[in-house]
UniProtKB/TrEMBL annotation:
Keywords: NAD, Oxidoreductase. The lineage of its organism: Eukaryota, Fungi, Fungi incertae sedis, Chytridiomycota, Chytridiomycota incertae sedis. InterPro entries: Ald_DH/histidinol_DH (IPR016161), Ald_DH_C (IPR016163), Ald_DH_CS_CYS (IPR016160), Ald_DH_CS_GLU (IPR029510), Ald_DH_N (IPR016162), Aldehyde_DH_dom (IPR015590). The keyword Nucleotide-binding does not apply. CDD domains: ALDH_F8_HMSADH. This is 2-aminomuconic semialdehyde dehydrogenase.
């Protein structure tokens, strides 16, 4: 059984205390590797390595830093199939999704920031006859980067790439639930010869490794993506210290379908937004708001697309929906099914969970030949559609983060905005309408960080990314926002 190791100061190392966590494959429910259960002692070593590497890395010419990022991107890309299979095995998502989305987007994160360095312009201003002032972006120091389990490599590299592009060194704490592709990344970093200590990866739990990183006095910046509960805790823990914080947190996003939408296109988009990655994407449209006059027609189309989804072996090419990430998360999502019924909802599709969901589903030929029943202990749930719940029902207010979507009717544009904005979250939304004026109005009225019109999860790395309200604080992305975050901006005034 494989053993994951920490990556500190350019070397793979066992955790100081010698403790490991079980790493479970979601599709089987079985332990398939072990991951370090690191402690503050490991974090201490990693921060020391990152701090030692900082003076040299932060003054390394931009072109050299950019070429490292490009080589990392090329190396991950050349191992696409290996990374995609590892991500799928570790997370439960279909290997086809990891191949088409997760790993290519991780590659794109490095390529994008390598490219941005070439256009890294500073501002210059002038007071006539007195002085010129220009801005200088000074990398902050050792960045603490903490990432979740839903898009493991994609979201971790979304932090590492800008951090090292703009001259920071970093200590990463990937989710202990999905450590495998971060471990593979360490191998890539060794092979491309990234200077020692520029990127360090410490595996372990939030309390064991995450909190010592957050609280470390030599870590002046934390970029955290994860739940609102933990983000709020990090905000409280760091409040006595002057640390830069970026918190990308949970969501309860609305998909808003107007009567004038291209309904077949909207239904296809809404189903993808609801169930992609088993509904385990912070940006998923987990509440679909539909204008009353097209409610029945839209629901029929929505159910047709949902029925076409295939839950099953993540490695099978026809699978669209894999297993939920862990037993604990599965139990949480399942508990919302009972709650939905208790709250007066009606399940109009799905609702089954457990081994029976994958009975008779396609399995890989070699499994069938060996008569294996490897999927029976996996964390399965059918894509589930619930109607009839009021907008304040808990299932319409709380982040379920699984393949459960609710559909609600609305009458007017004002109603749609009230319902869409009526949760504590404010991450994203998608608006479906052929009336562009209306789409602009509604997009402007949404309290959130990202609004898509007639599409979902089209990602432009130039755009700012982040949430409002309980969905987070701060923006990353593009040259401006990531550079502002990973650097301190200084004004240098030169007199005539
Ligand atoms: P989580 O908050 O439980 O864990 C996220 C990371 O924080 C993990 O690495 C975990 O080990 C670490 N952690 C836990 N406790 C910690 C502590 N006390 N101190 C420091 N680190 C700690 O989140 P999760 O369950 O891994 O991920 C799912 C959540 O992430 C969902 O709420 C989802 O919406 C959110 N998410 C948000 C975005 C976004 O961009 N806004 C993207 C993806 C996921």
């Amino acid at each position: 059984m494989s053993r994951i190791l920490n990556f500190i100061d350019g070397e793979l190392r066992p955790p100081v205390d010698g403790k490991y966590l079980d790493n479970v494959e979601p599709a089987t429910g079985k332990v398939y590797s072990h991951c370090p259960d690191s402690s503050s002692a490991d974090v201490e070593l990693a921060v020391a390595a990152a701090a030692a590497a900082f003076p040299s890395w932060s003054t390394t010419p931009r072109t050299v830093r950019a070429s490292f990022l490009t080589r990392i991107a090329d190396s991950i890309e050349s191992r696409l199939a290996e990374f995609a299979l590892a991500e799928s095995t570790d997370q439960g998502k279909p290997v086809s999704l990891a191949t088409a989305v997760d790993i290519p987007r991780a590659v794109a994160n490095f390529r994008y920031f390598a490219g941005r360095l070439a256009y890294d312009e500073d501002k210059v201003s002038r007071i006539d006859g007195v002085a010129w002032t220009y801005t200088h972006h000074q990398p902050v120091g050792v960045a603490g980067l903490i990432s979740p389990w839903n898009l493991p490599l994609y979201l971790l590299t979304w932090k590492i790439a800008p951090a090292i592009a703009y001259g920071c060194t970093c200590v990463c704490k990937p989710s202990e639930v999905t450590p495998m592709t971060a471990f593979l990344l360490a191998d890539v970093l060794i092979k491309v010869g990234l200077p020692k200590g520029v990127v360090n990866i410490v595996f372990g739990t939030g309390p064991g490794a995450g909190e010592p990183l957050v609280l470390h006095p030599n870590v002046p910046l934390i970029s955290f993506t994860g739940s609102t509960t933990i983000g709020t805790r990090i905000s409280a823990l760091t409040s006595p210290f002057p640390k830069k914080l970026s918190l990308e947190l949970g969501g309860k996003n609305a998909t808003i379908v107007f009567a004038d939408a291209d309904l077949p296109r909207a239904a296809e988009g809404a189903v993808r937004a609801a169930f992609a990655n088993q509904g385990e994407v912070c940006l998923c449209g987990s509440r679909v708001l539909v204008q009353s006059e097209v409610y029945d027609a839209f629901l029929a189309l929505f159910l047709t697309h949902t029925r076409a989804l295939t839950v099953g072996d993540p490695r099978h090419p026809s699978t669209t929906t894999g297993a939920l990430v862990s037993r604990a998360h599965y139990d949480k999502v399942v508990s919302y099914l009972a709650l939905a019924v208790q709250e007066g909802g009606k399940v109009v599709h799905g609702g089954r969970y457990g081994a029976e969901v994958v009975k008779g589903r396609p399995v890989m030929v070699e499994q069938r030949e060996k008569g294996e029943r490897r999927l029976e202990g996996g964390f399965w749930m059918e894509p589930t559609v619930v109607v009839g719940l009021g907008e304040v029902a808990r299932c319409n207010q709380e982040e379920i983060f699984g393949p459960v979507v609710t559909i609600l009717p609305f009458r007017t544009e004002e109603d749609a905005l009230r319902i869409a904005n009526g949760t504590k979250y404010g991450l994203s939304a998608s608006v479906w309408s052929e009336d562009l004026r209306r789409a602009h109005r509604v997009a402007e009225g949404i309290r959130g960080g990202y609004v898509w019109v007639n599409c979902w999860m089209v990602r432009d790395l130039n755009a700012p990314f982040g949430g409002t309200k309980a969905s987070g604080i701060g923006r990353e992305g593009g040259a401006e926002w990531s550079r502002e975050f990973y650097c301190d901006t200084k004004a240098i005034c030169v007199a005539y």
